[in-house]
# Entry
Amino acid sequence: MAKTDYDYLIVGQGIAGTSLGMHLVEAGKSFQIIGDSSLPSSSKVAAGIFNPLTGKKLVKTWLADDLFPYARNFYSTLEKKFSCQLVHEMPIYRPFRSIEEQNTYLAQTADPKIAPYISQNEVPADVSDYIHAGHGGIEVIQAGWIDLPKLLVESRRFFSENNQFVEARFYMDDVRISEFGVIWNNKIFSKIIFCQGFMALENQLFDWLPFTPVKGQILKVSTETHLKPYIINQGIFMLPDSESTMRVGATYSWDPLDWEPTQEATEELDGKLRSIFKCKYTIKTGIAGIRPSVKDRRPLIGLHPKHRNVGIFNGLGTKGVTLAPFFANQFVGHLESGKELNPAVNIDRYFSLYFR
Ligand SMILES: Cc1cc2nc3c(=O)[nH]c(=O)nc-3n(C[C@H](O)[C@H](O)[C@H](O)COP(=O)(O)OP(=O)(O)OC[C@H]3O[C@@H](n4cnc5c(N)ncnc54)[C@H](O)[C@@H]3O)c2cc1C
# Structure
């Protein structure tokens, strides 16, 4: 085996590449991350919400009991490292739409698996001065949002200071992959790991994986109403990022899959917002991104079936904030110590697609 310059080459510095890089730092490994600031990134657009109970039926998020404490600890550690606030703990208030919904939800809150995530406060969130909430609502706790744009900027600065970041666009023609190593930019790496989000669809090494990308749009909205520190969730989310500004989202669409906000999505969100928000507001701007979702809604992690020094860390779908840290840790354990990856995320579940 040729002597290598670095252990890993990581392509892409969204939340996937960043989490992986941070765990490699912890493991004492050498690496370079390639990122191109002019390219789009889902992590730059994401609201960054972490929510343990989702959907109309208040279902506990997959592996929430493991993922949430791990993610909280990961982001808090980065806050200390960068001396800035990244974690915004904030309950999610879900107004009941009807008496029936009130009864269903209240019955569900008795479930011991759900109960730890519901506030026991006797006085529920009082947001009734600006939200239609005639039937009351429930408060989901252990929730909030992560400031992903700030996290990406601070992490990039950190990686750059440690000579671990290269501002460049990666092209497949520039890399040579053999069983002896990966050569890029005249440097030899033991392994290359692709963390390209949606852009993995252009990567011929992994284009056989069943990505089902979903476009999403968010609006930035201002209001003269004093917003309280609750994320409101009823069909859409309203995330206050100051006392008078909020982000409102998100849409789900499949065609066209581009990064441009559209008038149609703005109107959809505006209509939903008008039905729940009582006060005046102004739409400032819209931003759009593409979620790297997967057919079975589980991440895509692991090594290529043929090139065992080529890996992928992707498929974080709608939940990159909570999935990325936990599975970056698991992936590093797998790469470095051969620890088993959770079979639900390991790309070997799709190897039959590659070999057919
Ligand atoms: C509207 C919207 C709202 C969302 N809200 C939430 C939310 O509230 N909570 C949540 O958990 N998740 C949310 N998500 C999902 C979240 O954004 C994703 O799960 C996550 O960001 C995926 O991270 P990633 O690192 O895999 O991909 P990305 O963030 O897309 O990162 C991939 C990076 O690779 C780079 N790259 C690709 N190819 C190359 C190349 N050839 N050369 C150099 N660089 C390259 C890209 O430029 C990019 O920077 C939302 C997504 C959208 C669109």
Notes: The mean pLDDT is 95. The chain is about 25% helix and 25% strand.
